[in-house]
Amino acid sequence: MTWTATSRYGLDVAPDGLALVHDFLNTASADWPRKPDLLADRALATEWIGSALATWASQWGAPVLDEVDLDTLSERDLAVLRRARAGLLESLCSRDFGTGGSAGGGDGDALAGLANLEVAVEAGFGLDGIVHFKPKGRGWRMLLGPVALEMRRAQDAGVWARLKTCKNERCRGAFYDRSRNNSGVWHDVRTCGNVANLRASRERRRQAAEQAVGRQARTR
Fold it and tell me: Which InterPro entries match (predicted)?
C-alpha cells in the first residue's frame, strides 16, 4: 500500500502517521505538473480515501476497511473535505509565509470553516496491549478524524512545522522538509526553486540596467 496522492508527484512522504495528512493535502491539483483533484468527484475520492485509510490503518494494525462504508460518501462530504483541505493549506501558508490567500481563497474563510469542524476517532487495545485507532463516524468524519489525530501527534512530537507548502504560488504542493534546520521553502529546488531564482536574477539584472541608464542620463 502506498500514499498515492503524494507519490504521484514524486515526493517523499512525511514519516509515520503524518503521511496521512501529507497525502490529504496533496489530493489537491498542484502545478508540478498539474494532476487531477482527487476530491473532485465521488469515484476519485472513494478510491483515494479507501487506499489512504488502508495504508494508515496498517500503521496501527487496525483493519478499518471492514468497518468503513465508503459508499456513503456524498457530494456534501466532498465539499467539506475540500474546504478542510483548503483550510489546512491556508494555515500552512499563513504560518510559513505570513499569508494564506493563495491556498484558501484570500479572506480566511477556509480557516474559519476548518475551525468549526469537530471529529473523533475510536481507540482500542490489541491482544498485545498496544493501542490502535480507527475512524469514527461516516462521510467526511471518517477521514478527518484520523487526519486530526495525526496532526496532533505531529504537533506533540515537534515535527508539524516540517510539513509545508511550496513557496511557489503556482505550485503550493505540500512537502515534508527534511533539511537539518527546517529551512526549506520549495517542494523541489530543481524545479520551483530554480524557476524562482532565475526570475529573481532576471529582475536584478533589469533593475541594474535601468539604474545604469539613469546614471548615464544624469551625466549628459
Answer: ABATE, ABATE_dom_sf, Znf_CGNR
